[in-house]
Amino acid sequence: MNKKSIASFVGVALGAAVAVAPAHAQNVRIGLLGGISGPIAAMAPPMIQASQLAVAQINEQGGILKGGRLEVVVGDSACNPQNATDAATKAVNIDRILATVGPHCSGAVLAAANSVTVPAGVLMVTPSGTSPEVTKIKDKDLVFRAVPSDDYQGRALARTLKARGITKVAVAYLNNDYGKGLAEAFKAEFEAGGGTLAGYSGHEDGKASYRSDLAQLARGGADTLVIFDYGDGTGLTILRQALENNFFKTFIGADGMKSEAVIRALGEQNLGTFFSSAPVGEASASLDAFRTAFRAAGGDPEAIFVTTSYDAAFLVALAIEQAGGERSKLSAALRAVASAPGEPILAGEWAKARRLIAAGKDIDYKGAAGDHEFDPAGDVPGRYAFFKVSGGTYEAIAEMK
Questions:
Q1: What is the reported pLDDT for 356?
Q2: Angle (nearest 5°) at CA 281 between 105 and 140
Q3: C-beta neighbour count of 351 within 10 angstroms
Q4: Phi, psi of 354, deg, nearest 5
Q5: Cβ burial 103-131 (10 Å sphere, 16+ → b, else e)
Q6: CA–CA separation, 162 vs 82, rounded Å?
Q7: For residue 280, what are the β-bridge partners?
Q8: How far apart are CA 180 and CA 157, in angstroms?
Q9: Tell me, what's the pLDDT at 281?
Q10: E-strand spans in 35-80?
């Protein structure tokens, strides 16, 4: 789905929502701050579509707050702090949103939260902002995420490589909150387990050539290069140039590198030694329900971050319903609807959730991505898998622990 398709999809959804809203109902706007342009441009469309699926199901099952319609305002954070701040400012001050799903990228989350949403008292749930720095935001309990921190991913990836017999690597990381956070977690765990870092280097985004950086990293004698970057941007350039110059034999990426853009650009035949980690949903009836609905809507249920994108939107809507639309109560309401005890609510079960909330009953959302039991910092546990390229896409080959 390209930008034009996204805009058309969003426009149709919003138009339909406004057209059928009862006159007495209270419509609600939420922001969807996605990385439509920038380094995750290929990942963003399925993520946006997954969030839109949740909104469509909510409106189809009676709407929100006594029959109002849930409307979405889409903004492009471009995975850039300034763009994210601008998009969030418009969403909060002009579009008058009640909460946001996203931004998608960690640096954008930090900028939008610190500069806009937290000062304005606006709830934020990111489906993919994974940097450990997000945990440290002084957020007044307003910033949550539906995906685990990269502190876990980096350490789990280090343990996975050691288990596969890889004990010496070089690391190239993008010098931003995402890349640096992953690299630091990976380095600590890899070295603690007896692994050797033959090279460890940060790089800036957007250069035409990284060959000198790669040559320096290769001098340490490692056969494996770990790339903490984005497969739609600089990470793709680094992987391509490493392959072209035979600097390394094996390549490992984290979730940012698990992009279809890598396969399209380099070809499956050249990626036999390329692997990546990424979060995965826990097998459940909720995940099955999401997959069926998303596939019927034309989406790819195996695309990265689609389960967390769906859950983030559904959770925000549940919190709004639970809080009666009162902004000051959203944070507590989010924790209430996401936590035990309570009647289980699966993906798509909006009408059931509304009935229980109206009756004053406790609910516990069991998401497509798993159970979202938020800790005091708004973080969640989660599961990761190790992927290889196969059949023109990514195939999970091992669970990461």
A1: 98
A2: 45
A3: 13
A4: -60, -45
A5: bbbbbbbbbbbbbbbbeeebbbbbbbbbb
A6: 38
A7: 383
A8: 15
A9: 82
A10: 70-76
d(CA 332, CA 5) in angstroms, rounded, equals: 36
Query: CB–CB of 250/169 below 8 Å?
Result: no
Residue with tokens 């600590």: 188
Amino acid of residue 26: Q
Identity of the residue numbered 66: K
Cα distance between residue 356 and residue 2, in whole Å? 39
Closest C-alpha among 130, 135, 134 to residue 150:
130
Position 26 scores a pLDDT of: 83
Which token pair is 4?
């034009």
- Residue 324 CA, distance from chain mean position: 27
Structure tokens given for 243: 């392959």
**CA 386/CA 401 separation, integer angstroms:** 10
- For residue 6, the model assigns a pLDDT of 39
Cβ neighbourhood burial of 23 (10 Å; 0-12, 13-18, 19+): exposed
pLDDT at site 175: 97
Task: Output helix, strand, coil percentages for the chain, rounded to the nearest 5.
Answer: 45, 20, 35
What is the spatial distance between Cα 21 and Cα 15, in angstroms, rounded to a whole number?
10
Cross-strand partners of 30: 72, 99
pLDDT for residue 135: 96
Tell me how far apart the terminal alpha carbons of the chain are, to the nearest angstrom: 33
DSSP-assigned letter for residue 282: P
- Pair 105, 35: CB distance under 8 Å: yes
319-372 pLDDT, tens digit per residue, is 999 999 999 999 999 999 999 999 999 999 999 999 999 999 999 999 999 999
The reported pLDDT for the residue numbered 24 is 53
Amino acid residing at 36? I
The angle that helices 211-218 and 234-244 make with each other, rounded to 10 degrees, is: 60
Query: Which pTM does this prediction carry?
Result: 0.90
3-state secondary structure of 165: coil
Q: Say how far apart CA 251 and CA 274 lie, in whole Å.
A: 5
* DSSP strand pairing (168-174 vs 99-101): unpaired
**pLDDT averaged over consecutive 10-residue blocks of the chain (401 residues)?**
39 36 71 96 96 98 96 97 98 98 97 98 98 96 96 96 98 97 97 98 96 98 98 96 98 96 97 96 94 98 96 98 98 97 98 98 97 96 93 95 89
3-state SS assignment for residue 221: coil
